[in-house]
Every structure is written in structure tokens, then in C-alpha cells.
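Structure in, sequence out. Go:
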């Protein structure tokens, strides 16, 4: 397709007017994306790229789905907007909540809608504190994991365990406590699984006791670390955490913003372990990013705990339950179910894992792991000692740039690199991905 403006013209205007997230201010990659179809992206020069990260781990059903565009258009023509606060409702939001209740984990049947993951997490944090106020207690502390990511607004940033996200924005919101996560390859306790007996999970109970059970409102964590490196937990972790939270009278919040809607091989990641959270945040795959949308799901006890007759729920966003977003979410959920994309994520994700684990034979590739179509791995200077490369070499950044030159988009997540392709990817397309990565990883260390 020919464009009326040159790539250089787009880039000049970009630098002049657009401030990019997670980028040196005033910088760009030099690429201007213009089209997408399936798992592929195309730039204004006509070059194609495999979208190995699903945009931002969110384009679950792939690019260019006309049925999602049609759903948005049809809804906008019928009803573009009406607020949902003060008891107002509309057909699209009712249908969206009803459909979500059908696919959510058992017992999650009540939903609050918002515009994205950060707002969903923020809602969970506020509702957790409100819940305990309604119960007549002052429980307010939120426990979360180091190296976790929960969003960019102040409360969600305060819960986030990636230190770089809160740096330079201090002081953050008080009342947040962080504990070690479940990344076994770099265990914070210096132990090895399974001899560790899940010290990382049991440590949560120690912290609740030390902080004071009467002060801890909730524990929030991703079912598997997302921006922290695409790290799945040991199988026993979540059942142990659920038991601890129940016994210690602490709400359990699972952040399914990345892991929800089929990405891990189940519709929601917590279904791998058969646990029920008290609340769960959702976004990204709920509309496959065709429109910005998020949700908070609640179990019955949580929902009932928010009821205070005569006192409204004073928490809202203008776009809570936006009609077009709801309509796209409904159609997106239909696609996920009808095309059995969670099953495809499980099957093709296992194939991706096995193909990438083959690369652990290389001298600098380590800790390949994943769940469904979320996969992460490390590149290290010395596998015997797990010593990383000197940060000054920017090995991960170089790999990302080299792969991009060869037509593959993937990401650096702290110490790990990650692949999170759309759920429609095939085994043949996985072979293409591995074919691009292998020679780059064989060439390590960098000159």
C-alpha cells in the first residue's frame, strides 16, 4: 500500500509531537507501523514483521479481525455512549457482564468495568480497602511481589515490584509491602525447588503475621510474572497462597491483565491450579486491544462485602462500561471460544517451549520456561554460575534490535527475553520464530 506521507515525514512529526512511554524522550526506533494481519505487522516501507509479543501481550486473536471492527461500528451507530453510574445501564454492558460470567473462573460472577489494566488494578486496591472498612476494621496494607508489574497509576505503581517503575516518582502510596517472587532460577532465598518446600509461598504468611494480620487487607500477584520475565510459578505455589490468605483473613487478588483470555492455555491462568480469587483484574485480551477496556471480577463474598445500604459506591470512571468497548469484548470472547484459542495456546505453546528449550544446548541460553503462549528465557555470560552479561554490553537490547531487523518483534523483560505471540499462531510459524532466534543466540557473546 502506498502512503501519502513518507516514513521520514512521519518520524519527524513523531519526534516533534509525540512522547513515547518507556523510551528516552525524543527517541524512536525508526519504524512506523501501518498495517497488521494475523500475526504479522507491516511498516510504511512495506517490511513485514512477526508480532512475537502480540503488541503489548494483548492482541490475542491477531490483527485485522473485521468482525471486531464491525462490532464497534454497529454499537457506535446504535448507542455511542451513556454513563453507567447512578444505576444507569445499557444493553451492551449487561451482555458483556453476562458473557464474562460464563467464561470466568468458578464463582467470579460480578464485574466492574474500566478502561485498562492500570485502572482495573487501581479498582481492586481501592475496593479491598473499602471492603475492610465496611467490615469495621482498619485493614489497609497490600502485599505484592518483587519484580511484578501491576500498572502505571499511583496505587498500581506502588503495588508494582519493578523498582524502575516507581523510581523518580516518590513518595509512592503508603501501605504497600513487597516480598520475593517465585522465580526459581534466581531464588531470593538461595534455595532450590522442590527442596525449598515453597519458601516463597510460606514467606507470605510470615509477612502477614509480622505486619499484623489486623492490618493486611490483600495480597495481589500475577498468576505468572508478566513484565517480570514471563515466569510461571511452581505448581504448588497458588494453592498454598490461597490457603494462607483464607486462614489469615486476607483478600486474594490475582492480576490476570496479561495472563487472561486464553494466553496461558486456559481461559484464565488461575484455572491451572483450581483456585478462586476474591478479586481478579482483567484487560488486554478482553478486547484483544482493539479498544481499551478492563474489568474487575469479584467472588460472591467480596461483592456482598461492598454493599452498604444508603451509601453509593464512590468509585467511577467516565468510560466504565463504554458501549463500544463492551460490544467488542463480547465479540472477542465469542472468537476465543468458537476458535478454541486457549486450546491452541496450550498446544502450540508447548511446541514453542520445546523448540526454545532445544536452544538451552547453546552456551549462553538458560532458564527457558513458560505457560501456554507466554515464554521467557535468559541469556547469561556463564551458565554454571548464572552470571549475567555485563549490563554495559546491552546484550538483550542488541538481540531485540537484531531480531527486529530480521523481521521478528520480541521483548526484553528485565533479565529475561520474552515471546508472547497472538493465540492464532501455528507450529509452522513457531518454526520461523525459532529460525530467526537461533543464529542470533548462537552468535553470543556480542563482539
Amino acid at each position: 500500500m502506498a502512503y501519502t506521507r513518507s516514513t521520514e515525514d512521519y518520524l519527524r512529526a513523531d519526534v516533534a509531537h509525540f512522547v513515547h512511554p518507556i523510551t528516552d524522550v525524543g527517541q524512536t526506533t525508526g519504524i512506523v507501523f501501518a498495517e497488521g494481519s494475523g500475526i504479522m505487522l507491516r511498516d510504511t516501507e512495506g517490511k513485514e514483521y512477526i508480532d512475537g509479543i502480540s503488541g503489548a501481550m494483548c492482541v490475542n486473536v491477531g490483527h485485522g479481525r473485521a468482525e471486531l471492527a464491525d462490532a464497534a461500528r454497529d454499537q457506535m451507530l446504535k448507542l455511542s455512549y451513556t454513563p453507567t453510574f447512578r444505576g444507569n445501564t445499557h444493553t451492551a454492558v449487561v451482555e458483556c457482564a453476562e458473557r464474562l460470567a460464563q467464561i470466568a473462573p468458578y464463582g467470579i460472577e460480578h464485574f466492574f468495568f474500566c478502561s485498562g489494566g492500570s485502572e482495573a488494578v487501581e479498582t481492586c486496591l481501592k475496593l479491598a480497602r473499602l471492603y475492610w472498612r465496611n467490615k469495621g476494621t482498619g485493614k489497609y496494607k497490600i502485599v505484592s511481589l518483587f519484580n511484578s508489574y501491576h500498572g502505571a497509576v499511583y496505587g498500581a505503581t506502588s503495588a508494582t515490584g519493578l523498582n524502575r517503575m516507581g523510581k523518580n516518582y516518590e513518595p509512592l502510596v503508603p501501605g504497600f509491602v513487597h516480598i520475593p517472587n517465585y522465580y526459581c532460577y534466581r531464588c531470593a532465598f538461595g534455595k532450590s525447588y522442590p527442596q525449598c518446600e515453597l519458601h516463597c509461598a510460606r514467606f507470605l504468611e510470615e509477612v502477614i503475621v509480622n505486619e499484623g494480620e489486623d492490618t493486611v487487607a490483600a495480597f495481589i500477584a500475577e498468576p505468572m510474572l508478566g513484565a517480570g520475565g514471563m515466569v510461571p510459578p511452581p505448581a504448588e505455589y497458588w494453592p498454598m497462597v490461597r490457603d494462607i490468605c483464607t486462614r489469615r483473613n486476607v483478600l486474594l487478588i490475582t492480576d490476570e491483565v496479561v495472563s487472561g483470555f486464553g494466553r496461558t492455555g486456559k481461559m484464565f491462568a488461575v484455572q491451572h491450579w483450581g483456585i478462586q480469587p476474591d478479586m481478579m483484574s482483567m484487560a488486554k485480551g478482553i478486547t484483544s486491544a482493539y479498544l481499551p477496556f478492563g474489568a474487575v471480577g469479584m467472588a460472591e463474598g467480596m461483592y456482598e462485602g461492598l454493599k452498604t445500604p444508603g451509601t453509593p459506591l464512590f468509585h467511577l470512571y467516565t468510560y466504565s462500561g463504554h458501549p463500544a468497548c463492551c460490544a467488542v469484548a463480547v465479540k472477542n470472547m465469542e472468537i476465543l471460544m468458537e476458535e478454541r484459542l486457549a486450546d491452541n495456546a496450550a498446544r502450540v505453546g508447548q511446541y514453542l517451549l520445546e523448540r526454545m528449550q532445544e536452544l538451552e544446548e547453546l552456551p549462553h541460553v538458560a532458564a527457558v520456561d513458560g505457560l501456554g503462549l507466554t515464554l521467557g528465557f535468559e541469556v547469561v555470560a556463564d551458565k554454571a554460575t548464572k552470571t549475567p552479561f555485563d549490563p554495559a554490553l546491552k546484550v538483550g537490547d542488541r538481540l531485540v534490535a537484531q531480531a527486529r531487523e530480521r523481521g521478528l518483534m520480541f521483548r526484553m523483560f528485565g533479565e529475561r527475553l520474552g515471546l508472547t505471540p497472538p493465540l492464532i499462531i501455528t507450529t509452522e510459524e513457531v518454526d520461523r520464530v525459532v529460525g530467526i532466534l537461533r543464529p542470533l543466540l548462537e552468535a553470543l557473546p556480542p563482539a
